[in-house]
Amino acid sequence: MELPQRKIIHVDMDAFYASVEQMDFPELRGKPLAVGGGERGVVAAASYEARKFGVRSAMPSKIAKEKCPQLIFVKPRFSRYKEISQQIRTIFFDYTDLVEPLSLDEAYLDVTENKKNIDSANDLAREIRKRIFDEVGLTASAGISVNKFLAKVASDINKPNGQKTIHPSKISEFLENLKIEKFYGIGKVTANKMHTMHIFNGADLKRKSLEELISLFGKSGGYYYNVVRGIHNGEVKANRIQKSVAVERTFSEDLSDDLQIKERLEALSLELEERLEKKNILGKSLTLKIKYKDFSQYTRSKTQEDFYSSSKEFYQTALQLWQARPYNKAIRLLGLSFSNLNTEEKKQISVQLKIPFEEFQ
To answer: Taking a C-beta distance cutoff of 8 angstroms, is the pair 140, 156 a contact?
Structure first.
């Protein structure tokens, strides 16, 4: 299959929240730092100094402190992160109008045709990263290739403060040598499952037929079959409307203790609140996702007329959904997600406002 020869850049800020805090408060520079946390919270972001100790985002603060006793916790300042994010996006729009933000700290840019008329996407990415550093004061990493999947994978290769280009002539070689857990869209649980099937890199995955992969992984099997061949035709969408926000956690050991479950639900509720605040999103439908040790899955939702407002409310609803579950088996994964978001209402309002003007043209 002939690949569309677009030029896509994925820009990913380096430890964004933590880097903003270290920029604004010089006394924090060079120190292990966690944004978020608190007595029973979860880490929203960790500085690279903290990551050396194994501290990661979404990690319970208690575990983070055990891994790094000198860890400094700071409260998140989402208004400040949004302000910085807007400065960065302004730079992006100097190069192209085809910008698809994924969150405050990362975005896709389609620079196939760009405002600077620069032919090399690699040179463009380098210039954009330099401008972010000079004008904002933060470092960014970038991935450059012919589609969004490859650009996303590439941006992680030379982090922090680096970039990686996957040239069309090198796609097959790159993907065949890539460890399976580095494929965007293949999580830890799926990667472990693939390891049991002796799939350790792209070359191993490529040996599987489409029928085999669909049989093993369902609908996702078609995605795996395509991306290992460098096929991903998703366009950069400048007006991307988010329809759901989710957090979930896979546990290293199956959980059956009710108190442990409640603690995990509370931590997920806090993490979900932070993620919603970060994106200025509200939701009316809360869904609890449970995956049992036998890999069977159960979901249950509750929708209300008004938007949910706090992690306490998330937790109480999640607890009700948990207690209403039909099976009392040990679990390997818990997740919470919101749908029926205010982003969809904004889209509807925008469409409604357009109609009268179009009628009178």
So the answer is: no
Question: Quick check: 282 and 276 in contact, CB under 8 A?
Answer: yes
Q: How far is 54 from 132, CA to CA, in rounded Å?
A: 28
How far apart, in whole angstroms, are the C-alpha atoms of residue 313 and residue 290? 19
What type of residue sits at position 264? R
* Among 236, 344, 255, 345, CA closest to 293: 255
Strand partners, 245: 338
Q: Indicate the burial class of 102 (C-beta count within 10 angstroms; 0-12, 13-18, 19 or more).
A: middle
C-beta of residue 315 within 8 angstroms of C-beta of residue 265: yes
Q: Annotated binding residues, as ranges?
A: 12, 105
Catalytic sites, residue numbers? 106
Binding-site entries for Mg(2+):
12, 105
pLDDT in tens, the chain (361 residues): 444 589 999 999 999 999 999 999 999 999 999 998 776 678 989 999 999 999 998 888 899 999 999 999 999 998 899 899 999 999 999 999 999 999 899 999 999 999 999 999 999 999 999 999 999 999 999 999 999 999 999 999 999 999 999 999 999 999 999 999 999 999 888 999 999 999 999 999 999 999 999 999 999 999 999 999 999 999 998 866 667 888 888 887 889 899 999 999 999 999 999 888 877 889 999 999 999 888 788 999 999 999 998 999 999 999 999 999 988 899 989 999 998 898 765 444 343 333 333 333 3
Domains parsed from the chain with CATH numbers: 8-15+79-168 (3.30.70.270), 16-77 (3.40.1170.60), 172-227 (1.10.150.20), 245-347 (3.30.1490.100)
Q: Where are the alpha helices (DSSP H) in the chain?
A: 16-24, 48-51, 61-67, 78-92, 121-135, 148-155, 171-177, 188-196, 202-206, 210-217, 219-227, 258-279, 311-323, 342-359
